[in-house]
Structure formats: C-alpha cells, structure tokens
Amino acid sequence: MKKILIIVSCSIIIAALVLYFTFTNLSKDSVTKKESASINVEKQEKGQIIEIEEADAKPVAEEFPLEMSEEKIRDAIHGMSHQKVKADKKWGFIPLTSERVNRLIEVVKANQSTYKNSTTYLEILERWAKNDFSQVDKDHNTIWELQNGNVGRATGILSHEEEMEFIQEYYDVEGT
C-alpha cells in the first residue's frame, strides 16, 4: 500500500511539473513573441506621422468588410487611437494606418443610414485621413464614452518618442 501511495504521489508531482514548465514556456512565448513590422515616418506640417507596415497584415478589405457592425467600427477606431493617446489602461491595439482609416471611411459611408453615430465616426476618421491628430485624445474619449468606458480615459497625446515606445511593445520593429 505504501509503494502505491509513493508511486501515485511521484506521478502527480511529475505531471504537475511537466504542466507547469509547459505552461510557463507557452505563456512566455506568447507574451514575448512579436510580429515583425517596419516603420514609415512622414514629416508633416503638423508633426511626424508614424505608420506601421506589418509583415503579415491581411488585406484591409478583409479586416474591415463593408458589412461591419457599428460596434466593430467603434472597436477599430478605439483600438487605432491607442497608438497616439496617453491612458492608464489600454485594451486592444490596431495600428493606425492611412489605409485602415480610408477603408473605415468607406465602410461608414456605406452604412451611414444604419449607424447611429456615423457622423461622429466620419468626423474623427476624416480628420485622421488628413493626418490631423491634434485632438486624438478627445476622439478616443468620444468613442470610449459610446462604449460606456469606465477605465482608460485618455489624458493626453503621446509624444513621438512615447508613440514609438508603445509600438515597440507590440512589434519587433526593423531598424530600431
């Protein structure tokens, strides 16, 4: 009986150790593994615009189909704003690119009659399409309020350096 108890105990300990080390390695890889991307920095009258060029990005029409729900539009605008805003908490991130902004404008215009807040979305997106991020913190908070946000209110706009640091949290940026 004592032998069986020792064998069962050792088996449980070994199984627990195998599970622990397997889980630890999987978690570590999923947190530290970043997608590759390159950065395109355009100097504009209003400052520098940072665009992320993802190595494995799917086509924007596939990412944002014309029949997107209004909730998904809000999620996309909110996620893109995180690249540019200061906030205590940020959940989700979608790289803010001119291609995505222009596609979202197209989607909102195609659904203007069904989206309750289409005017708000178009005001934000059309400003961004002109590389005007001077009130991106207010844009973030407008969408955040439509989503009934209670944590993560934007408190300002990131500097160029802070934006680069934020991007590097998510991407293995070539040339940095």
Give a brief outline of the structure.
The chain is built from seven helices and five strands. The protein has helices spanning 2-32, 60-63, 70-81, 98-110, 118-129, 136-146, 160-170; strands at residues 35-44, 47-54, 85-87, 154-157, 171-173. Strand 1 (35-44) and strand 2 form a beta hairpin.
How would you describe the overall organization of this protein?
- This protein is α+β, with helices and mostly antiparallel strands and 176 residues long.
- It has seven helices and five strands, in the order H-E-E-H-H-E-H-H-H-E-H-E.
- The protein has helices at 2-32, 60-63, 70-81, 98-110, 118-129, 136-146, 160-170; strands spanning 35-44, 47-54, 85-87, 154-157, 171-173.
- The strands form two sheets. A three-stranded mixed beta sheet has the order 2-1-5, covered by helices on one side. The chain has a two-stranded antiparallel sheet with strand order 3-4.
- Helix 3 (70-81) runs antiparallel to helix 6, helix 4 runs antiparallel to helix 5 (118-129) and helix 5 (118-129) packs antiparallel against helix 6.
- Keywords: Membrane, Transmembrane, Transmembrane helix.
- The chain crosses the membrane at residues 6-26.
Write the layout of secondary structure elements.
Elements: H1 2-32, E1 35-44, E2 47-54, H2 60-63, H3 70-81, E3 85-87, H4 98-110, H5 118-129, H6 136-146, E4 154-157, H7 160-170, E5 171-173
Parallel strand pairs: 1-5
Antiparallel strand pairs: 1-2, 3-4
Helix pairs in contact: 3-6, 4-5, 5-6
User: For this entry, what is the oligomeric state of its chains?
Assistant: single chain
The chain-level mean pLDDT equals 84
Largest sheet: 3 strands, mixed
Q: What would you call the shape?
A: elongated
* Rg, Cα atoms, Å: 22 Å
Distance between the termini: 63 Å
Tell me the total number of β-strands.
5
User: Counting H and I runs of at least 4 residues, what is the number of helices?
Assistant: 7
Number of domains: 1
- Please bin the fraction of helical residues: 40-55%
**What order do the helices and strands follow?**
HEEHHEHHHEHE
> What structural category arises from helix and sheet content?
alpha+beta
Stretches with pLDDT under 50, minimum 5 residues = 22-32
Q: In which order are the strands of the major sheet placed?
A: 2-1-5
Q: Which percent range describes the beta-strand content?
A: 15-25%
